[in-house]
Design a protein that fits this description.
By secondary structure, this protein is α+β, with helices and mostly antiparallel strands. 32% of the residues lie in helices and 12% in strands. The protein has helices spanning 87-107, 129-142, 175-192, 196-205, 224-235, 250-270, 272-295, 302-305, 331-340, 406-412, 447-455, 462-465, and strands at 2-3, 35-40, 48-53, 58-60, 66-68, 121-125, 324-328, 355-362, 415-421, 424-426, 437-438, 441-446. Strand 2 (35-40) and strand 3 (48-53) form a beta hairpin. Helix 3 (175-192) packs across helix 7, helix 6 (250-270) crosses helix 9 and helix 7 (272-295) runs antiparallel to helix 11 (447-455). The two termini are 22 Å apart.
């Protein structure tokens, strides 16, 4: 499960110059009046408490003196940081969690109505604060205070250091992917910068471009994708922080969306290496957890979120398996994953609070019941000591499909994967082939087929793959279509 949420613009670079910077700052973050931090209250480390505080943002005044950032009518206590999850973002992600509860708890009865801990739920977020906020808001929507027992312990949320992050396409920490993304972006610039579509955009908004980059272009400053982000962010919020009306021209927005989507996501559709470095590690993790669930090995994420120090083998309430996973990520994550699976049929930039649901189904008549893992069963270790290992994994979750034994393949039989994007089932092209899906519905891909497709762009070791092929061409020598 992935979420994307309304936010402020990422940075000043994203916002074109005056008159927009003379607009009030965004007063859409009421959370700033009620922040809470963990503080130590005794020097022997024995007691801890919550410290509540409010935030105000200081900035430069006209004469360089410090002044408070303020919104319309001089509001100072609800001003947002750049890229922060806004009140609207909190509202929509809370509502998403409520919809998840309605579906998986109330309608399907798949998840319990009341929980005493969250050790059957895998949660993860990127280092961006708004991604963590969105996971928390969605969780509270799905399991409000009334659906948690009085003794409910803090749930586990997995995070990674930026250098290890794979929950979004990590161009900053993957050198080869940076090469590829620049090459595909340049191809988009070469294709569109002198087009009649770009001429139309310039007729609308070029008068607001900065002097050192006077024309709108794929690679202008700000980039066309940055203009799109600003337009979308302002549309999601109040009229007092809107841009001039030409930015909301329907035809112009369609052109910007088409060009921005091609710049950012065409590589996933065309290049296996692009898929592997941009999103393959994440897709491999998701598939691995589904395989671990079918296998019954405990390698479904339980070992990461459950238990306490010294005993990670079961949940704090005795849970032995993960039933639900929720990850807070970004628009580039969603479209990258859909494009890599050949399921980005809309071709439109993901709207705010978009989500992907990857659902695992079991045919009770054919699937074998997973056996509880034996004490000596191979389990993926998530401790740092294993990071340097280069031996082929003995764990089924990350073993390539072609290396699975007949017995291991048998464990996947009777399981099906469905991909839903904003509640709409999507079809992976390779799953539509005979024998690769549930009879009568191509959106239900067999787990075996889904894994085989994902395995083709799952890196064995992502960090090493990021340093490979640095002297090779960026574009594949022959077509490498996604989803097969």
């Amino acid at each position: 499960m992935t979420t994307l949420d309304p936010r402020g613009p990422y940075s000043d670079e994203e916002l074109p110059i005056a008159p927009w910077r003379t607009k009030p700052d965004w007063p859409y973050c009421n959370a700033a009046k009620r922040f809470s931090s963990v503080v130590m209250t005794k020097t022997d480390w024995s007691t801890w408490d919550d410290f509540q505080w409010r935030r105000r943002i200081e900035t430069f005044g006209d004469d360089d003196r410090p002044v408070l950032a303020s919104g319309p009518k001089g509001l100072v206590d609800t001003v947002c940081q750049l890229g922060e999850l806004t009140d609207k973002g909190r509202e929509t992600t809370l509502a998403l969690g409520e919809r998840l509860r309605h579906l998986y708890v109330d309608q399907l009865g798949f998840m319990p109505k009341i929980i005493s801990d969250a050790d059957m739920i895998y949660m993860r977020a990127t280092p961006m604060a708004r991604a963590l906020d969105s996971v928390q808001q969605s969780f509270v929507g799905m399991y409000p205070l009334s659906a948690r027992t009085a003794s409910f312990p803090p749930p586990t949320i997995i995070t990674r250091a930026p250098a290890d992050e794979t929950l979004f396409p990590n161009e900053s920490n993957c050198r080869r992917f940076s090469q590829l993304s620049r090459a595909f972006a340049q191809r988009t610039a070469d294709r569109w910068n002198n087009s009649k579509e770009m001429d139309y955009l310039n007729s609308l908004i070029s008068k607001w471009m900065p002097e050192d980059s006077p024309e709108v272009a794929v690679d202008s400053h700000p980039r066309i994708s940055g203009i799109m982000d600003t337009v979308n962010s302002t549309l999601a919020h109040g009229p007092k922080t809107r841009l001039p009306s030409p930015f909301y021209d329907a035809k112009g927005r369609d052109i910007i969306d088409q060009i921005g989507t091609e710049e950012w996501f065409s590589g996933y559709k065309e290049s296996e290496e692009y898929r592997k470095l941009g999103i393959g590690a994440l897709v491999g993790d998701i598939v691995g957890r589904m395989v671990g669930s079918a296998e019954g090995s405990g390698n479904d994420g339980l070992l990461e979120v459950a238990g306490i120090d010294g005993d990670l083998s079961k949940g704090r309430g005795g849970e032995s398996a993960i039933k639900f996973a929720m990850s807070g990520c970004h628009d580039t994550t969603l479209a990258a994953m859909l494009s890599s699976l050949g399921a980005f049929q809309s071709g439109k930039w993901p709207p705010y609070t978009s989500h992907i649901a990857v659902e695992l189904f079991k045919d009770e008549s054919t699937a074998r019941e997973p056996a509880p893992p034996a004490d000596n069963a191979p389990r993926q270790t998530f401790l740092g000591a294993s990071r340097k290992s280069t031996k082929p994994s003995s764990v089924m979750t990350r073993k390539p499909s072609q290396d699975l034994t007949a017995e291991e393949k048998e464990k996947l039989q009777g399981y099906f994967v469905r991909l839903r994007y904003n509640d709409r089932p999507m079809v992976v092209p390779g799953c539509g082939l005979p024998g690769k899906h549930l009879e009568g519905d191509k959106s239900f891909c067999t787990l075996e087929a889904f894994k085989a497709i994902a395995d083709k762009f799952t890196p064995r070791i992502w960090t090493e793959a990021c340093s490979d092929n640095l002297d090779e061409p960026a574009f594949p020598r022959s077509p490498e279509p996604a989803g097969f």
